[in-house]
Amino acid sequence: MAQLDVQQKLSILADAAKYDASCASSGTSKRGSAGSKAIGSTEGMGICHAYAPDGRCISLLKILLTNSCIFDCHYCINRRSSNVRRARFTAREVADLTMAFYKRNYIEGLFLSSGIIRSSDYTMEQIVEAARLLREEQDFRGYIHLKTIPDADPDLVRQAGLYADRVSINVELPTAGGLKRLAPEKSGTRIEGAMRDMRHAIDDGDDARRRYRSAPRFAPAGQSTQMIVGADAATDGDIVRRASALYGRFNLRRVYYSAFSPIPQPSVVLPLRRPPLLREHRLYQSDWLMRFYAYSPDEVAAAADARTGMLPLDIDPKLAWALKFRDRFPVDVNRAPREMLLRVPGLGVKAVDAILAIRRWRRLRLADIARLTVSVKKCRPFLIAEDWRPVALADRADLRPLVAPRAEQLELFAA
């Protein structure tokens, strides 16, 4: 590793970081460098390669400090027994590389994770040192997201929160049984303990900021986590309930889902095939239903197949739930409460808020609904308007083919 130059290290460690999905840069406080000698901002945009949840196109330098690791998790390409080329950055190299990329307008911020070398405490020290160099020596005010290590000393993890905009601690797998089988050296109890400590530290930091304006910001973008989907036998229902529990107990900003991808020289305990990428997409849609549409985890899980526990891949979870509970529909858009309007397939949060505002002044017709959604065909069987009642559609046994999106073959060279 000592013979590699920075460019070779970057090639290895940027590629090794691609399996981590939790690198959006939204949710932090606005911070700039105008009128000072500092460098960076959390508001600007560089050359963009990804979209944050708030819609901004962003780009982060996404790297590992090292892809060497003392753990031997079966699903990880960087595990101890994996035959991959290893590399390691120093904390100084990470800081200098981030500044060089930022000054060239290539990136907006840094996402830094790492394999475990020597010990959890030593690795966490190096991660914190890289962030410290950026903040204190180079006065970098751009976005920093640090992956913290659950087994590290809690004081080191708290230091990470002083320098980072967001911190994350991966729960790795949805179930305790899956973690024990595929990552026996990791402890679910320690992972959740670290997440609990981080939540308390964030709450304490927020309280201090309310009391004292001079109090330092502590992880203003909160904490997130990531689960690997498809490496174990967890069903979509298991994953949805686990995600809901994590949101409630640790006040997470996001739970990210990463579809298991087969790796070179895989362990014999891993599945031979990757799960459909569409499964990951359906789980993100389910996550959205719980966070913004007031669905309970049991309601989302009820949309899954009763036999397999898996969400359908051909339709979204909201439509699957509506088709399964036809007795709740149709909903009168001129009289129904907000929570029921949010359950109408094809109506988003903005459309529902617009309906509530408009109906204070007049009754809505189907043409009004069509102006608020791109999918009025999907809505029609599930709602009642001033001039519309789904008499013929409401009781049809073959409703699903009528409202499900039509499968189309994409063209490689379509205009």
TrEMBL record:
<dbReference type="InterPro" id="IPR013785">
    <property type="entry name" value="Aldolase_TIM"/>
</dbReference>
<dbReference type="InterPro" id="IPR006638">
    <property type="entry name" value="Elp3/MiaA/NifB-like_rSAM"/>
</dbReference>
<dbReference type="InterPro" id="IPR023874">
    <property type="entry name" value="DNA_rSAM_put"/>
</dbReference>
<dbReference type="Pfam" id="PF04055">
    <property type="entry name" value="Radical_SAM"/>
</dbReference>
<protein>
    <submittedName>
        <fullName>Putative DNA modification/repair radical SAM protein</fullName>
    </submittedName>
</protein>
<dbReference type="InterPro" id="IPR007197">
    <property type="entry name" value="rSAM"/>
</dbReference>
<dbReference type="GO" id="GO:0046872">
    <property type="term" value="F:metal ion binding"/>
</dbReference>
<dbReference type="GO" id="GO:0003824">
    <property type="term" value="F:catalytic activity"/>
</dbReference>
<keyword id="KW-0949">S-adenosyl-L-methionine</keyword>
<keyword id="KW-0479">Metal-binding</keyword>
<dbReference type="InterPro" id="IPR010994">
    <property type="entry name" value="RuvA_2-like"/>
</dbReference>
<feature type="domain" description="Elp3/MiaA/NifB-like radical SAM core">
    <location>
        <begin position="59"/>
        <end position="286"/>
    </location>
</feature>
<keyword id="KW-0408">Iron</keyword>
<dbReference type="GO" id="GO:0051536">
    <property type="term" value="F:iron-sulfur cluster binding"/>
</dbReference>
<dbReference type="InterPro" id="IPR051675">
    <property type="entry name" value="Endo/Exo/Phosphatase_dom_1"/>
</dbReference>
<dbReference type="InterPro" id="IPR058240">
    <property type="entry name" value="rSAM_sf"/>
</dbReference>
<keyword id="KW-0411">Iron-sulfur</keyword>
